[in-house]
Amino acid sequence: MVDLAERLEVTQAVRFLPYQKRARLPLSLSSADIHVVGLAKGLAGYVVPSRLYGILSAGRPVIVAADDASETARLVQEIGCGVVIPPARPDLLARAIREASEGAFDLAEMGRRGRAYVEEEADRVVAMERYRALVREMLAA
Question: How many secondary structure helices (H) and strands (E) does the chain include?
């Protein structure tokens, strides 16, 4: 990513930070206009990087570089919380970042959709209640 930013001569507009402590995560996630989440080619199963949920929780949109068949891409498209591009395509990543910067996407609305999804479907309380319901159902059978 650093090399790409240098090649595109956008180092003044893009900031790369060192590893941040977990306590600072909400601050760093909410400071970006848009995030990038990459998923290596061939990981089209049910892998969803946990950082995606943190980004959505912060109410920020995301550019996902992942196979269309991946759960990550499906989730982002279904929610409408970001843009999906194929993995290993820095040209398309650069284009998506440029388009986002130029206002081609309603980033605020994408962020709202992501946050709403987390609150309604992926919140810890919601997830725990679903697990409890599943265990009750299994015990009843």
Answer: 7, 3
Question: Which of 22, 15, 21, 12 lies closest to 1 in space, CA to CA?
Answer: 15
Closest CA to 8 of 107, 93, 100, 105: 93
Q: In this structure, are residues 39 and 47 in contact, taking their beta carbons and an 8 Å threshold?
A: yes
The residue that leads in pLDDT, 77 or 2, is: 77
Order of strands across the sheet that contains 35-38: 35-38, 62-65, 82-85
- Is the full-model pTM beyond 0.90? no
Contact 126, 89 (CB under 8 A): no
Residue 135 CB partners (closer than 8 Å, separation 6+): none
Mean pLDDT across 21-33: 86
Domains along the chain?
Answer: 26-140 (3.40.50.2000)
pLDDT band at 108 (very low <50, low <70, confident <90, very high): very high
Which strand (E) or helix (H) includes residue 73?
Answer: helix 71-79
Distance separating alpha carbons of residues 78 and 49, to the nearest angstrom: 16
The C-alpha atoms of residue 116 and residue 104 are separated, in whole angstroms, by 22
